[in-house]
Write a structure and sequence with these properties.
Radius of gyration: 23 Å
Order of helices and strands: HHH
Number of helices: 3
Shape: elongated
Mean pLDDT: 77
Structural class: mainly alpha
Length: 141
């Protein structure tokens, strides 16, 4: 029998694995269908008088669908994998694992690496989302 803590970790890791294996690919496919459907709809709807208005909306919708698809395809699997690793680290059966003589597990280095990764990732997001202004002589300011 498992303790409540062990069972929670076990079922949480099963849910995370199910999300990564089944839910995320389904959402990527839905995003791809959204791209196709928006292209078909806006192609049917655009005429000479509404070209600028619908062209701009089409670009925004396609950019949104592509960014959602890329997030679902790249970022979320990595995040779920990190959560799965953290879950198995936190909720493993320590009473069933044999300890070597003199071996001690330290959690602080792992937490330091996690904090470093989060801070580097957030600084990259801030750097990449800053607006770049271009002057008239085509140099980046």
């Amino acid at each position: 029998k498992m303790s409540c803590k062990g069972a929670f970790g076990y079922y949480l890791s099963l849910v995370l694995a199910h999300i990564q294996d089944h839910v995320l690919p389904l959402l990527v496919r839905v995003s791809s269908i959204g791209i196709y459907a928006s292209i078909v709809y806006f192609t049917w709807k655009i005429d000479r008088h509404t070209l600028q208005d619908f062209g701009q909306k089409l670009f925004i919708v396609l950019l949104g669908c592509v960014s959602i698809g890329a997030t679902l395809d790249v970022f979320l699997p990595a995040l779920i994998l990190a959560c799965l690793g953290a879950t198995t680290t936190i909720y493993r059966h320590t009473d069933e694992m044999p300890k070597r003589a003199g071996e001690e597990r330290h959690l602080l280095p792992m937490l330091g690496q996690l904090a470093h990764g989060v801070l580097v990732g957030l600084s990259m997001v801030v750097f990449l989302t800053e607006e770049v202004q271009v002057s008239t002589d085509h140099r980046i300011v």
